[in-house]
Design brief:
Radius of gyration: 57 Å
Shape: rod-shaped
Mean pLDDT: 82
Number of helices: 2
Number of strands: 0
Structural class: mainly alpha
Order of helices and strands: HH
């Protein structure tokens, strides 16, 4: 067993060892905090630099960083809505163009049918014109023959009458 004298000698040594352990633990804890703080500062500096690049302005101070991030988030949301709106407009325009294309094809088919009908009617008209010209010649011939018969009949009447 250690006596009072040994305890008096060991107590300062134990206190010194305990103080050294506390000092080493505190130093390690402070070093860890400083390392973490340095890591956070480096990351925040990177974020600030990225915000400065995105906004094309100098990087914001650390105290304005949260409001800058909120502003960028709001800007992103606005741009996302605008993009979605533009995509909707493009989709509507694409659908409209496709509908117009289909309508154009349908009307082209109708036009082709109408051209075929028109060609048929022109051919039929030409046939009727040829028939009318042929009939016109026949009519003129028949009219002349009838007139000759009438003139011959009149001459016969005159001949019988003694002229």
């Amino acid at each position: 067993m250690i006596g009072v004298t040994g305890l008096r000698r060991a107590a300062p040594l134990a206190l010194a060892i305990a103080a050294a352990v506390l000092l080493a633990g505190s130093a390690a804890w402070l070093w860890r905090l400083d390392t973490l703080r340095g890591g956070y500062r480096a990351r925040l500096s990177d974020v600030a630099a990225a915000i400065g690049t995105a906004t094309q302005s100098p990087p914001p101070k650390f105290d304005r960083l949260a409001s800058e991030i909120a502003g960028l988030a709001a800007e992103r949301d606005t741009r996302t809505r605008e993009r979605d709106s533009a995509r909707t407009a493009v989709a509507q325009q694409t659908a409209s163009i496709r509908a117009l294309e289909a309508e154009g094809r349908r009307l082209a088919a109708i036009g082709e049918q109408n051209r075929a009908v028109a060609a048929s009617l022109i051919e039929e008209r030409s046939s009727w014109i040829a028939r009318a010209r042929a009939a016109e010649g026949r009519t003129e011939r028949l009219t002349c023959e009838r007139e000759l018969e009438e003139v011959n009949a009149a001459l016969d009447v005159l001949y019988r009458a003694g002229f």
